[in-house]
Amino acid sequence: MARPRFTPTAEQRRIVKSMAAMGIPQEQVAQMINCRSPKTLRKHFREELDAAASEANYNVAKVLYNLATSGEEPAATMFWLKCRAGWRERPIFEPASIAPPPFIVAQERGVQQP
User: Fold this and answer.
1) pLDDT digits (tens, 9 = 90+) for 1-46
2) φ and ψ of 105, to 5 deg
């Protein structure tokens, strides 16, 4: 007797999209929705799997952008500028903290000091 044909439900589609957005491996997603294999999962949920990561990245970037531009989260602003604007931190030069090299006196050969 043949296995019954897999028919995805709206709830399964929601779960697949959510789990894929969080980066959960397809094997685990398939188990969660009682799907036979990752191959069956990809066959029936291709759109959800393809769209999940880009939508998740968009949502996180939107929140980060709002935090960075609000002026209330300086860390978010600095993170955005480092990642997107190429800003970087430079070491502060403190001359007093660097020891000078030892003083060396060179003597020429054949010349005697008085």
Assistant:
1) 788 888 999 999 999 999 999 999 999 999 999 998 999 999 999 9
2) -105, 125
